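Summary for the steering committee. One of the milestones for this cycle was to obtain a three-dimensional model of the protein with xanthosine-5'-monophosphate bound, which we needed before selecting residues for the alanine scan. The sequence and ligand used are listed below.
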Amino acid sequence: MEQDIRQILIETDELQKRIKELGQEITRDYKGKDLVVICVLKGAVMFMSDLCKNIDLPLSIDFMAVSSYGSSTQSSGVVRILKDLDSSIEDKDVLIVEDIIDTGLTLSYLVENLKSRGPKSVKLCTLLNKPERRKTDVKVDYIGFTIPDEFVVGYGLDFNEKYRNLPYICVLKEEVYK
Ligand code: XMP
Ligand code: MG
C-alpha cells in the first residue's frame, strides 16, 4: 500500500495525541450525563474506538450505517439508513462520531433524524473537517483536525473499501484514483 501514497497528512502519534485531548474534553463536558456514543460506520470505527478509550466516564456505544447516493468521492445529500441503532436514544445525551465532514449533507440529515427520536441532547464529533466544500450549516462541537480539500484515506477512511487499516491519514497518488 505504501507505494500508492503521495503524502502523509497526519501521522499516527499526532492522531493519538489529539484524540487524547478530545477524550479529555468530552470527559469534562459529559460528567454526570447519560452518554451514548454513536459511531457512523464504517469510516469512524478506528476513531470511535480510540476516542472511547480516552473518555473516562460510563458510556454506551451504538452503530449506524448510512449511505449517501452518489459517486464514491461525491456526496449527494440523499441519505439512506443501511443499519439503524440497536437501542433507543430517548432521554440520552448523544454524541455522533464521524470520520470526516465534507459537504455536511450526510451529517445534517443524521442530526435531524436522531433529534426526532427524543434524545436529551445531540452533539457532533468529527476527526476531520473539510470546511471548503461545506454546503449546509451543520454545527460541529468537537473537531480533531481541519484539512484542505483533498480526498484522504487511512485510519478508517477508504477508497473503494481499501486503505482503512493505515494507521495515519494520507493522500493517494493521482494514478490510484483512475
Ligand atoms: P458529506 O459530504 O456528506 O460526506 O459531509 C461525508 C462522507 O463522505 C465521505 N468522504 C470521504 N471519505 N475520504 C474518504 O475516505 C475523504 O476525503 C472524504 N470526504 C468525504 C465519508 O464517507 C463521509 O462520511
Ligand atoms: Mg467512505
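Key point for the committee: Strands lie at 5-10, 35-41, 60-68, 79-83, 93-101, 121-129, 142-146, 152-153, 169-172.
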